[in-house]
Amino acid sequence: MQWIAMLTMLIDHVGLVFFPHQEVWRIIGRIAFPIYVYALVQGHRFTSSRPKYIIRLAVIAAISQIPYQLALDPEGLNVVITLVAGAIVLYVLERSDSRLLSWMVVVAACALMSGFPFDYGAYGLLLILIFRYAQASWLVPLHMVLNLLFWFLNNWELQMWSVIPTAVIAYGPHVWKKLESIRVSRWVWRSFYPLHLLIIALLRVFL
Q: Which of 21, 92, 114, 135 measures 20 to 30 Å from 45, CA to CA?
């Protein structure tokens, strides 16, 4: 799972920077984000300390920001910041006893993430919530509805391809269990995002 997420994200970013008119790179890249969302939700559920988990993510986000701006988007916020925001929302929701307050938190977070240049914006948060709270049989339908909504709102037709890994997660648990058994060093997993952005940024400068 982790190798697929890293490889497809790398393909997506290489295509975005070096082959912007070749759509196939971006299509393959749509596989990555749902896997990172799945990993975030699993990490949130099973970590021994959720505050420490959020802090670790925040450190990766901070390290990644300058390489992200140099490589991909000078004015944007990198995707790990989106994951941090999602993890914070999950933490708040699970400590809230009020359904009304929970809805207010989600709406406020969506507004914030739409108003500022978060990578994936409110879409990212809503997908995190789907992966956290939806039953497996509902993952694909809800993800499809979310994609259709943002296709209509933001013209994100490429995002429709992101349903593929969600379908594997929801309907292919035996295959996924085998993929999960292929472990990645935690330092490789944590350093890959900022490191690959830095390399792309350097290549962009020198090439």
A: 114
Residue whose C-alpha is closest to residue 187's, from 63, 28, 50, 85:
63
**Which residues, other chains included, contact 3 with Cβ-Cβ below 8 Å and sequence gap of 6+?**
182, 184
84: tokens are: 């941090």
Radius of gyration of the chain measured on its C-alpha atoms: 17
- To 5 degrees, how large is the angle CA 58–CA 62–CA 66? 155
**Residues 55-74: pLDDT tens digits?**
999 999 999 999 999 999 99
Give the containing element (helix H, strand E) for 113: helix 99-115
| Interval 82-131: pLDDT, tens | 999 999 999 999 999 999 999 999 999 999 999 999 999 999 999 999 99
Q: How far apart are CA 193 and CA 196, in angstroms?
A: 6
Residue of 187, 168, 137 lying closest to 34 (CA atoms) = 168
